[in-house]
Amino acid sequence: MAVVRDLRVLLRFRDFRRLLAVRLLSQGADGVYQVGLATYVVFSPERQTSPAAIASAMAVLLLPYSLVGPFAGILLDRWRRRQVFLYGNLLRALLAAATAVLMLSQVPDWLFYVSALCVTAVNRFVLAGLSAALPRVVDADRLVMANSLSPTAGTLAATVGGGLAFVVRLLIADSDAAVVLLGAALYLCSALASLRMGRELLGPDQVPLQPGLRAAFSGTVRDLAAGLRHLAAPARREAAWALASMTLMRFCYGALTVMLLMLCRYAFSTNTDEGLVLLGLAVGVSGAGFFAAALLTPWSAGRFGPGRWIAVCAASAAVLEPALGLPFAMEPTLVAAFVLGLTTQGAKISTDTLVQSSVDDGYRGRVFSFYDVLFNAAFVAAAGVAALMLPPDGRSVPLVLTVAAIYAAVATAMARCEHR
What we know:
Elements: H1 2-10, H2 14-43, H3 51-67, H4 69-76, H5 81-104, H6 109-133, H7 143-172, H8 176-194, H9 213-231, H10 237-267, H11 272-304, H12 306-325, H13 330-358, H14 361-389, H15 397-419
Helix pairs in contact: 2-3, 2-5, 2-6, 2-7, 2-8, 3-6, 3-14, 4-6, 4-9, 5-6, 5-8, 7-8, 9-14, 10-11, 10-13, 10-14, 10-15, 11-12, 11-13, 12-13, 12-15
């Protein structure tokens, strides 16, 4: 396979192997920690889970990506990246251990959420640093290959970490604190792995003159605004509509995720262990939908065009989501998880393609930063709306119909855009 061949080529670079080890351990720890946090909020027997608690947990996991992400590069250009990996992962190990202690203690919920928020905020610096360091460990001819394979390997590591967390929680230690401590141990391993690289290896190179932090931060805000104005130009109308459509579809996916969590916790199971197994199954089925989208979308977008494929994905979700969701039964819900994984990821791949092909190279980074903010903020906003609409057992006909109406509106808007 071409992917295996490319990976073998990259693994010949010693420093790439070492950087990849830091990434795999770090993102594997992320998967463990996030599942530990989610199961504590949703599936702890001693806690009465509510949609509001789930919304709070999602805000903790995702808001740092939206709020910190665009500004992380400003500080990364001033700090040694190897030191970011070392001290960032050491800090996360300490904070994750503190989260585990808070889980076992009688403390206010806000203190637990502050601890978790700090872990995910530091994570944004580590992930941005991993991407920024890649050109220092491979040659220019293989940089595109490395940018393709390294983040994919990190995502797989996070998935494996999440699966490991489920195994530990269900088979080894019936304790969310034990899962979070495992994540802390993996963060520590990632910090130690970074010591195999030289302090100066990953840069950045010293720049004689850099603007002050205040000027740099205000400049970032201006750059994001310039990227938004560039996207709003008539020549990029299709990309702008696609970005708006993807934001709304991400909102729908977030609202349904909260509903799924509540259904697995109360409606589909009689105990927390059974609910965890069902949730793991649903996540796996949704992941299969994401994988199917990666296989199907290149052909479909090539045949219909990316914009029309977004319309097809949204229309399919508008029809199938209420048909499969309104029975509020486990089997059709699993089918819906696959369908929504496929349609959401298919729309995202098409949106990425439209933005990449329509936006000038000088603005592409700023537009994608704005895209990242919208993508994560929409999920958090959806969790908040779902918290207001969902009953304790998760069965909400109004939420299912509202989401279907949003999907239908997206399909109609994209079809009209393509017609024009």
